[in-house]
Amino acid sequence: MFPKGFLWGGAISGSQAEGGFDSGGKGLSMADLLPYGDRRFKSMLNGTDALKNYNSENFYYPSHTGINFYEHYETDIKLLANLGLKAFRFSITWSRIYPIGTESSPNKDGLKFYDRVIDCCLENNIEPLVTIDHFDTPVGLVKKYGAWRDRKMIGAYLNLCQTLFERYKNKVKYWITFNEMNMILNLPFVGGGLCYDKKDNLTQLKYQAAHYQLVASAAATKMAHQVNPKMQIGCMLAAGEVYPYSCNPKDILMALQKNREQYFFSDVQVRGYYPNYIKQYLVRNNISLNITLEDKKILKNTVDFVSLSYYSTHCVSSDKEVSKNKTKGNVFSSVENPYIKSSEWGWQIDPIGLRITLNNLYDRYQKPLFIVENGLGAIDVLDENERIHDDYRIDYLSKHIDAMSEAIDDGVELMGYCIWGCIDIVSASTGEMKKRYGLIYVDKDDEGNGSLNRIKKDSFYWYKKVIQKNGIN
């Protein structure tokens, strides 16, 4: 049974939806350097390639146009209000507020845009859920500091936070400091704006950058509570339980270690200190981080809730032959689980895994949880009547909502649930439009062509009933 006041929502990110990459005084964002096509994944790993090969005249960059939410925000939010959303998760594009990242004062046009977005949400009785940094480090900060490899990034980030918290202190209650912070270990440029070469110790670099982000997140949490004690600040994980492939103790130990790799980030943000297992990992790998006494003091400012994205569970094996059978299309390396099916992009579909993940997170932290991303990427086809019959998406979402309900019955405290993305947006991993997640179809193809017309899918009407009945049946 879902609690009264449960926040049924939907989610997008600025870089995948807004467009208007050079409008209103906006500067270049890290996401603006990620092209469509074969070079995209390499660019997501290492910013050196992204910076070196950026050429907006010869390559198509999907974030430059997105779905033009920058100009369509009002009609889009009204569509979401018609859907019945209680919460709308979106991100602030950092370089729209501070185009280079080191300015002494914010870009007024950028702030006015978010003024309108937030006011439009509130006018339509939708709670804004704002992500401060959603994989969009300003290119100016990448060039000046090397992004999160430098401690100076903490000050630049907190400057952005101060501007946002003061301006929206009476309008935005729920904030997420960083999107999927653990992604920095898998996609260093996307997660931390990192450029590197063979001279760098990459593991050292990633964990040092992660430390600076953890300090920045804790300092932002303290700042928000000082500006308005009623603000709720959350951390965020790219979550999904890692299973052992078998009951071989080696597989079980490997799964424990892989789970700790993601839990490290939320452990610090919820508990306020580095756990022993990560300290030992750093020692074993000869990694010495720049951690000051002041850092340790700041880290004690812990979050109010834990938010997560959930798309799939993962599987590991100590058997080299078994490990050759990997799933495709996922950032996280995973052995294929023979007991569950996969999406068109190779993401394994595991609703029961969501229940397991929620229970493990709540057992670990006893903090409210908020699912801020969950959805199915699929190819949607318009029929002769311009309708999209996406029963496969309804099936996916209904099974995951059932799993959420069961987790609540298990005793998990769950604040809300945001479908990713409530409207079709550019895929972050591939840059495609054909990999659609939305309940609302956007007429645009992989090359950026289309009318941008919005069309409600069958899943739109289904989710509307789910919200009206607060998840009952």
TrEMBL record:
<keyword id="KW-0326">Glycosidase</keyword>
<keyword id="KW-0378">Hydrolase</keyword>
<comment type="similarity">
    <text>Belongs to the glycosyl hydrolase 1 family.</text>
</comment>
<protein>
    <submittedName>
        <fullName>6-phospho-beta-glucosidase</fullName>
        <ecNumber>3.2.1.86</ecNumber>
    </submittedName>
</protein>
<dbReference type="InterPro" id="IPR001360">
    <property type="entry name" value="Glyco_hydro_1"/>
</dbReference>
<feature type="active site" description="Nucleophile">
    <location>
        <position position="373"/>
    </location>
</feature>
<dbReference type="GO" id="GO:0005829">
    <property type="term" value="C:cytosol"/>
</dbReference>
<dbReference type="GO" id="GO:0016052">
    <property type="term" value="P:carbohydrate catabolic process"/>
</dbReference>
<dbReference type="InterPro" id="IPR018120">
    <property type="entry name" value="Glyco_hydro_1_AS"/>
</dbReference>
<dbReference type="InterPro" id="IPR017853">
    <property type="entry name" value="GH"/>
</dbReference>
<dbReference type="GO" id="GO:0008706">
    <property type="term" value="F:6-phospho-beta-glucosidase activity"/>
</dbReference>
<dbReference type="Pfam" id="PF00232">
    <property type="entry name" value="Glyco_hydro_1"/>
</dbReference>
